[in-house]
Every structure is written in structure tokens, then in C-alpha cells.
Design brief:
It is built from 16 helices and 16 strands. The protein is an alpha+beta fold. It has an eight-stranded mixed beta sheet, with helices on both faces. A hairpin with a 6-residue loop joins β9 and β10. α1 runs antiparallel to α6, α6 packs parallel to α10 and α7 runs antiparallel to α8. It is elongated. The two termini are 54 Å apart. It binds adenosine monophosphate. The site of adenosine monophosphate has 17 residues, from β6, β10, β11 and α12.
Length: 447
Amino acid sequence: MAQKVQGTEDLYGGYMRAWQHMQAVAHELFDTYGFDMIETPALEQIDTFVHGIGESTDVVRKEMFRVVSGALFERLLEEGTEKGLKPRQRLAMRPEGTAGVVRAVVENNLVPQGSTPAKLWYAESMFRGERPQKGRLRQFHQIGLEWLGAPDPAADAECIIILMELYRRLGFDMSKLRLYINSMGDSNCRPAYRKKVKQFIYDHKDEMCEDCLERAEINPLRSFDCKNEHCQQIMQSAPLVTDSLCEECAQHYAQVKAYLDAAGIEYVEDPTLVRGLDYYTRTVFEVEVLDAGVGAIGGGGRYDGLVELEGGKPTPGIGFAVGFERVALALATQGVDMEGAEPTCVYVACAAPEQRSAVFEATLTLRDAGLRVEADYQGRSLKSQFKQADKLNALVCVIIGADEVANNTYTLRDMNTHEQVSIAQADLVDEVIELMYSAEFEDDVEL
Ligand code: AMP
């Protein structure tokens, strides 16, 4: 039997409903802040990610799925090197959303100088060649939001407010969420800070792992995220970025915190929070769920240099991404089920083959009224049609037999009580809707 790729999942049934629910909640919320949806291609030139995410990051070096066509693959095998490839032939599946959105903003000139900022959101699959485990997939889904052209610290605070509101609307117990924030400085103050951390790692080189020594050369700040416990301990006494911020960055950070305080958003300052990607400047943030054991459920930050790196004019930006699978796992640990109830329907049952065309017409009428309608397409007996209707969660069955056709009537069966009534053909839609409504709310009515 063919099998799916390790670390990928099929989305269907309740799990698909949960993904759709998360998108619907995000859509409604983001709309109130004026964000429009965007979809960029899953396939981009590698350079789009290299420019933004950074050549030295794990995502670019190890985790990106690179793509070649069959013809190109054969050529590469023959030549034994990819050196001759043109940039447009070097492709990868997107490992994250921001670089592609920024590429699209630049290419389509969505933030012409001096005009309104671009406010965009997406709900897409991301692809990373990671070792699969709980909450870590090779194809996963993110909802993300990008706000281009807004340097104001109020935008940073609003992004965080939107993110936390999204979690609240999805049903999280907010007392269990921890929002971590930090400022990573900018092109003014970060280079000096990087140097300090690099020197710190060299000063402790006998005690740190090989990976950290390599990181010291190419991306020293990544050592704060080293999985090695001993390295983690040492890095606790490394210089902190917050002590190295220039005046502008320090003021910006103070203002973001003041806005969060004013909005009543609780946060924990974590001066070691550096996030994995190179493009972040100033504000960065991440959200974890206590006792859920799934890692971060979302994070983001400001990226004021990214548009230029992608070939555009200097344009500030900020955004975040939330992982669907981890949100679903974390919500489940809190007893919240994002799947929602299975959809209900109305079933049109056919007593004998002679009434099949009458059934066909009734299904069309009911669907025109916007109802979810099922019928039999396999020539089942009436009894097994009722069974089928139960399986399909039908609240109401419309029964059509010879008498109904002769008298211009339908019989309606309440699938809960099994009570049946006869109605005039012309009243079909009204009567079905009324019965479905009362069946749906039967259990909720207080007597
Ligand atoms: P990142 O782009 O790494 O900051 O990821 C943003 C969010 O996407 C994280 O907070 C996770 O919720 C989710 N995420 C990242 N990587 C994975 C993965 N491999 N599998 C599932 N979810 C992920």
C-alpha cells in the first residue's frame, strides 16, 4: 500500500474542520484590523529565502526541501554538480511565509513610496526537512500576518494584541499562555552585539559544542537556542542584547512595552529570545503553552531590513506566524476541541425507483435554499436509507413514495423522535427548515 511521506498528514473530517475553523476565526479577526488575504506560490527561488532568512540559518542550510524537475535532475546527475544552475532553476518549497510575501510585495509594488502600507495574511502549508516528532512535521500549516510600511511601535503592539486575541478566540485558557518578548536591536547596534557574543563563545570554546563553535563564525546568536544543556548553561551568562541596544532601539522597545501595558497584555521579557531567522530586527516575540509539551505555538517580530534584502526600497515590516498543528495539540491538552460538531443534513428518501425523479427535484429545491442535502445513489431499501440518514447525521428525512407524488405532498420524518407529518409540496423548504431548527435546538431548550 502506498504511504504518505513521514512527517506529513492527511487533513480530512474533524481535523480538516478544525483547520477551517482556525482560518475562519483568523479571517474574522484580521479583517477588523484591515488585513487582506494573500497566497504566494509554495515554490520559490532559493534566493528568496537565502536573502531573507539568511544563508547561515538551519532552515536554509539543512531544512529547505529543494526541488528540481525530472529533466534537470538527469542533467545534474550527468554533470555531478549544480554549479551551472541559474537562479531561476534553483528552487525550494517554502519553509516559512514571510520571505515569499515580502518578495510578492516587492515584485508587485504593493507598498509604493508614501502610499498606504500593505497589510496581508495567509493560511498555507510550509515545508521543512526536520526530523518528525510530536508537533514537528515536514509539511505543516501556518496562519501568518505581515504588515509592511509601519515603523510605529504601536504596530508591534497591535500585532501582538492580534496574536493573543486569536488564541483567546480559539478557546485557549489565557492564563496558561506565556508571551515572551525581546528586542534584537537593528543594523546600528546588532553588529557590535554579535561581536560580543562571538567573543564570549571563543572565551568559552573549550566548554561549548562543535555546533556552537561553528555558529560563532556564522551566526553566534543562534547559540542561545543550542539544544545542548551545557551550552545553555554557559549562554546564560553571555552578554544580553538588551544591554547593547542603541538609543533608538531602546526607546522603540520601551514604547512597545508601554502599549502592551496599556492594553493589559501580560508578557515576560526574555533577553535571550533571538528567534531562528536572520531577518528579525527590534521586537521579537514567541508564545508557549504551559504544560502542553509542544514548543512554541506562534511567534514573530519586526523585520525592517527584509524588503531591501528582497530588492525593494527601504520599508519596515512586522508579522507573526501561528502553527495550526501545535495549536490543535495544545488546545487538546486544555480539553478544547477545535473540530466542532459534525455537520447535519436533510436526507431525501425514495420509497421506490418510480419516485427517483421526484426525489431528484426535491433535492435541487432544498439545495437551492442553502441546505446540506443527501439522498440515496445506490438503490437502497427504505430501511437502509434511514440507517444511512442516521449515519450522515440527518436531522430530517423527506420521504417520497407513490402516495406523496399522487397527492402533491411530502412526508417529513423527525429523525430524533421518528414522528412523521404530511406537508404540502409547496411548503417543503419552510417546513424542513422549521423542523431542522427545532431538532437542532431540541436539547438546548429550557422547559
Ligand atoms: P517559525 O516560523 O519557526 O517561527 O514557526 C512559527 C510557528 O509555526 C511555530 O511557533 C510553530 O507553531 C509552527 N511550526 C514551526 N515549525 C513547525 C514544524 N516543523 N511542525 C509543526 N509546526 C511548526
